[in-house]
Design brief:
This protein has helices spanning 19-27, 63-73, 92-99, 116-125, 142-153, 164-167, 201-219, 221-226, 234-238, and strands spanning 2-7, 31-36, 49-50, 60-61, 78-89, 103-107, 128-132, 186-187, 190-191. The protein is an alpha/beta fold and 239 residues long. The structure holds 6-chloroguanine. It holds the Pfam family tRNA_m1G_MT.
Length: 239
């Protein structure tokens, strides 16, 4: 997968060199290039923003540098991702969609935003996804790109050792995962639940299912409400 990130803070994307994302880059699964938007400015001050038409606080990013940046990075198979507090909530399904694409372009704007005409023009040329991480406001899209790229990279073929960890994990299954434990069996006076040490795989699976439902009910009632009714059996309802 090829990824181009356009930002006025290229240093902010340095963590893309680390950890599994960095490893995927080294392995050749991922080819990331970070570009300074100011490369595409023409004036001596390398201006990228201006005051908003209609008034109001803050600044808006001017269309000209963005238009040039997108023209230069775009391929016939590109998908444009614009992190923004006014985007649709980014989900695991979105991560899977992005992971299936050959080329992503990330446009990092400051939070007052990019001139709308840039997004309108881009939408005529390629698919565009405006995505938000949640209901709070960040200074810009850079940290969102790190989050999105981590969610996407995990789904690329060959990045995770154990494919089962992808199918069983929270959010792809529609429920939160059960709590996990490792050795020692008793630590600080706290014992690992007996069932997990029983070796009875049927009981363990049932316990995990129950914990998963209880957790989801208390922490994410919205997820439980959206969970397909036909996937709940009699034992689930009893839990
Ligand atoms: Cl993706 N960008 C910005 N600027 N703020 C956000 C966000 C994204 N998601 C939540 N808040």
């Amino acid at each position: 997968m090829r990824v181009d990130v356009i930002t006025i803070f290229p240093e902010y994307l340095a963590p893309l060199d680390l950890s599994l994302v960095g490893k995927a880059r080294t392995a050749g699964t991922l080819d990331v290039s970070v570009h300074d938007l100011r490369t595409w400015t023409a004036d001596v001050h390398r201006t990228v923003d201006d005051t908003p038409y209609g008034g109001g606080p803050g600044m808006v990013m001017r269309p000209e540098p963005w238009s040039k940046a997108l023209a230069e990075t775009r391929r016939p198979d590109s998908l444009l991702v614009v992190p923004s507090p006014v985007g649709a909530r980014f989900t695991q399904a979105d991560a899977a969609e992005l992971a299936s694409r050959p080329h992503l372009i990330f446009a990092c704007g400051r939070y007052e935003g990019i001139d709308q005409r840039v997004l309108d023009e881009a939408a005529d040329l390629m698919p565009v996804r405006e995505v938000s991480l949640g209901d709070y406001v960040l200074f810009g899209g850079e940290v969102a790109v790190l989050v999105i790229m981590e969610a996407v990279t995990r789904l690329l073929p060959g990045v995770l050792g154990n494919a089962a960890s992808l199918t069983e994990e929270s959010h792809s299954a529609g429920l939160l995962e059960a709590p996990v434990f490792t050795k020692p069996a008793t630590w600080d006076g706290r014992a690992v639940p007996e069932v997990l040490r029983s070796g009875d795989h049927g009981r363990i699976a049932r316990w995990r299912r129950e914990q998963s439902l209880l957790r989801t009910a208390s922490r994410r009632p919205d997820m439980l409400a959206a969970y397909p009714d036909e996937l709940l059996d009699k034992r689930d309802r009893a839990a």
